[in-house]
Amino acid sequence: MFRICILSGSKMDDTNTQQLITQIENRLKEIKDIDVLLENILSGAREIVNADAGSIYEYDKNEEILRIRYSQNDTIQKRLPKGEKLPYEMKSVKPDFSTIAGYCLKSRRTVNVADVYNMSEYMDSDHLEKRSFSFNNALDLKNGYRTKSMLAVPLLMTNGTVLGVLQIINAQNEKGEVIPFDSDAEFYLSQFAGKIGTIYEYAYLTRQGIDRLVKMAGFRDPKETGAHVERVSCFALEIYDRYAANKNIPEKERNKFRDNLKLAARCHDIGKVAVPDGILKKQGLLDERERDIMKGHTCVGAQIFTPVENDVDQMACDVCLHHHDRWDGGNRGYPGNYDYREYIPETEMPHEIEQALKGKEIPLSARIVALADVYDALRNKRCYKDAWGMTETFEEIESQRERQFDPELVDAFMQIKDRLEDINRSIN
Question: Do 190 and 236 reside in the same domain of the chain?
């Protein structure tokens, strides 16, 4: 292990720490979605070394950039109202030897810095040259925060491919005082990082399976871009997180639901793979017959996830089938209680719904995705319409409270408008 400096601090209890690592590892193994996994890797790493903050970077080898996927900061979080998150920021940096994260990635070595505001030059033992790291304090100034100690560890796949960088900030002692990361912290965090590759690969394969289905639908439907799918899944997760905070849903229940939701939301329109091209790619509005055929995509999507083998299958089935049902049970929604297993692709579904679903009869996951999908459709350009403005979009969604949408979800949605807009701007 390469250390820029060897630091002292309070010694960590080996038995308790090893038990904690095992517990966190077992929790991570239950997570299926990559994004949820990365978020929990970061929180788990901070728990192991008792750190106030941190970020997790994902490496994009095609664009040769490091993207900050998640950032956490307990000090700043405590200043925010209940249910509110840190600002959404998807920043990317070029990995080079001038930054701590860049050096960590390029060298595949752990970097331990006592104070990022007082980094002295050091001699690279391999290259026999002096280096000095730069630190951008813009976020510190913006948030009134003081980054001090920092520990960066490379994340590697089992085949040696670089996944990214785990960057942990401000170790704390029992009194909550900021201290350097000691050699024990280096050891345990490196040990934890070494376990990530296998866990990540499992989630990666799950995501790949889902994304292949989504890609197949995307080839058929020019409106169903990868960006649209990514935005809808992100919107859905944010809406649920705020809803769960408002409802005081227990953390264990919340974590399981959001993990399944992130994957299921990506699948909401995969049933369009069975819609004829003349309808799917039509420039302009559909006539009544065409709309009745288009409705069938809900049933085809549900059929794809039948038989149900696990929780993800069940939620994906629910989302595909019911994300066009309406809270008020109106006939403009579909398919209601229609038996999706009997639907034949490319045929017309009933024009009128005889047994509409209403209110909480509609699965929560589908109610969330319905709102996320409409928001994305309004705020972004489609072949048949221009993008709506922010104000008119929010006014339209508010007008559909207790009509098209669950009123409690609309409340949650309105509470995070700025965050949703940040995501919409970032993913395109």
Answer: no
φ/ψ of 383, rounded to 5, equals: -65, -20
- Specify the number of domains making up the chain: 2
Contacts by residues 19-22 (CB-CB < 8 Å, ≥ 24 positions apart): 20/47, 20/48, 21/48, 21/188, 21/191, 21/192, 21/195
CA geometry: angle 383, 385, 391, nearest 5 deg: 140
The answer to whether residues 195 and 154 belong to one domain is: yes
**54-100 pLDDT per residue, tens:** 999 999 988 899 999 999 999 999 999 988 998 887 788 888 888 89
CA atoms within 13 A on the CB side of 103: 20
The token pair that represents 256 in the structure block? 């399981």
Rounded to whole angstroms, the Cα distance separating 171 from 190 reads 15
Whether 1 has a pLDDT exceeding 50, the answer reads no
Q: Give the span between the Cα atoms of 79 and 81, in whole angstroms.
A: 7
Is there a single domain that holds both residue 196 and residue 318?
Answer: no
Residue 172 in any domain: the answer is yes
pLDDT, tens digit (0-9, with 9 covering 90-100), for 270-282: 999 999 988 988 8
pLDDT recorded at residue 267 = 95
| 122 and 257 belong to one structural domain | no
Task: For residue 293, give every residue at least 6 positions away whose Cβ sits within 8 Å of its Cβ, in sequence order, or none.
Answer: 275, 276, 279, 346, 347, 348, 349
CATH of residue 54's domain is 3.30.450.40
